[in-house]
């Protein structure tokens, strides 16, 4: 299945955005080294690779891929990269919808939310993101669940 031809729902594109929209709380997160999380992750090239691979994982994930249709994948990837970049202290700006707006009327379950998080974890692991940095990113997802599920 080609990524470009995968049916991805326009308004379900927001599910994938879940991960990135959570990141603004980390916008100025820094380690003792003084580096932002953005820098520790490897900047925009590394973030772009993780986001791309997460989208590939979602496309192959039968638990949630059925939600997606008619989404412009390159645009979705660009928005996700901008969100993660900005949220981790990078120079990018995200201008997309809030989590509540993006998921309104979708009736996503906790299992759907968790499946997306697992797809992100797989992407980070396959891209050799250190566990501590993975945890920094994932720690902000749990509080977002109410803005995503059952909307």
UniProtKB/TrEMBL annotation:
<dbReference type="InterPro" id="IPR001486">
    <property type="entry name" value="Hemoglobin_trunc"/>
</dbReference>
<dbReference type="GO" id="GO:0046872">
    <property type="term" value="F:metal ion binding"/>
</dbReference>
<keyword id="KW-0479">Metal-binding</keyword>
<dbReference type="GO" id="GO:0005344">
    <property type="term" value="F:oxygen carrier activity"/>
</dbReference>
<protein>
    <recommendedName>
        <fullName>Group 1 truncated hemoglobin</fullName>
    </recommendedName>
</protein>
<keyword id="KW-0813">Transport</keyword>
<feature type="binding site" description="proximal binding residue">
    <location>
        <position position="103"/>
    </location>
    <ligand>
        <name>heme</name>
    </ligand>
</feature>
<dbReference type="InterPro" id="IPR012292">
    <property type="entry name" value="Globin/Proto"/>
</dbReference>
<feature type="signal peptide">
    <location>
        <begin position="1"/>
        <end position="29"/>
    </location>
</feature>
<dbReference type="Pfam" id="PF01152">
    <property type="entry name" value="Bac_globin"/>
</dbReference>
<keyword id="KW-0561">Oxygen transport</keyword>
<keyword id="KW-0349">Heme</keyword>
<comment type="similarity">
    <text>Belongs to the truncated hemoglobin family. Group I subfamily.</text>
</comment>
<dbReference type="InterPro" id="IPR016339">
    <property type="entry name" value="Hemoglobin_trunc_I"/>
</dbReference>
<keyword id="KW-0408">Iron</keyword>
<dbReference type="GO" id="GO:0020037">
    <property type="term" value="F:heme binding"/>
</dbReference>
<dbReference type="InterPro" id="IPR009050">
    <property type="entry name" value="Globin-like_sf"/>
</dbReference>
<dbReference type="GO" id="GO:0019825">
    <property type="term" value="F:oxygen binding"/>
</dbReference>
<keyword id="KW-0732">Signal</keyword>
<feature type="binding site" description="distal binding residue">
    <location>
        <position position="103"/>
    </location>
    <ligand>
        <name>heme</name>
    </ligand>
</feature>
